[in-house]
Amino acid sequence: MDFIKQFHSGWAYLTILMGVVFVISTLIYAISKKDTDATIKKIGLFTTITFHVQLLVGLVYYIMMFTSLEPSNIMADKGLRLTFVEHPMMMIAGVIFMTIANAKLKRSTTVPMKVTVFALIGLACILSRIPYNVWFA
Ligand code: HEM
Questions:
Q1: What is the pLDDT of residues 26-36, one digit of tens each?
Q2: This prediction's pTM
Q3: Ligand 1 proximal residues by C-beta, below 6 Å
Q4: Are 122 and 97 a contacting pair, CB within 8 Å?
């Protein structure tokens, strides 16, 4: 349990960093109308892998936490609602947006602005529902 918690907590830094790198680099490519090359495709691939690893570890962490949870009303408690409903839902949505952005990137010859828009929405979903009080405690 402790390893999963530490991993999920630490890997989150890499996830956010890769998300920011992806948004900025696709924005630069889109503005300068550069062709989709191996470099941007690699950034897209590494970002997607980083996000999916975090998603899978998050799911494992969730199951472990959920099974050791005392019977309680999750929706009525602000903290529990964030941990067990809002955080997972928004993170899954964020990963879906990022995955769509990468899929669109792979299929294009020049990087379209919609790739950056999808990635930005994904990143916003993620940043909006991170339990910062637990993370920085
Ligand atoms: C890109 C995706 C994700 C990011 C960036 C992320 C980030 C984080 C961070 C920073 C924490 C606080 C860790 C700590 O220091 O204890 C956390 C906690 C947690 N995450 Fe995620 N997470 C992601 C996806 C998920 C998913 C998909 C699930 C479950 C389906 C999940 C379940 C949890 C749970 C149960 C906690 C514990 C919260 C608590 O202790 O109150 N995470 N997550």
A1: 999 999 999 99
A2: 0.95
A3: 5, 8-9, 12, 15, 51, 54-55, 58-59, 61-62, 65, 83, 87-88, 91-92, 94-95, 126, 130-131, 134-135
A4: yes
